[in-house]
Design a protein that fits this description.
This protein is mainly alpha-helical and about 40 residues long. Helix content is about 70%, strand content about 0%. The chain has a domain of about 30 residues. It has two helices and no strands.
């Protein structure tokens, strides 16, 4: 997977993508832990 990413993105972009994925994962776990439901925004 890393080799595929490196063919398409710069190292800086890979770090940013990794950060975004980690943030969304943490946010989703937080919301689930506190039973926070979506408000219907898209």
């Amino acid at each position: 997977m890393r080799a595929d990413l490196e063919r398409h993105f710069s190292p800086r972009q890979i770090v940013e993508l990794t950060h975004t994925v980690a943030w969304e994962n943490a946010r989703a776990r937080f919301n689930r832990g506190f039973n926070i439901q979506p408000d219907g925004y898209q």
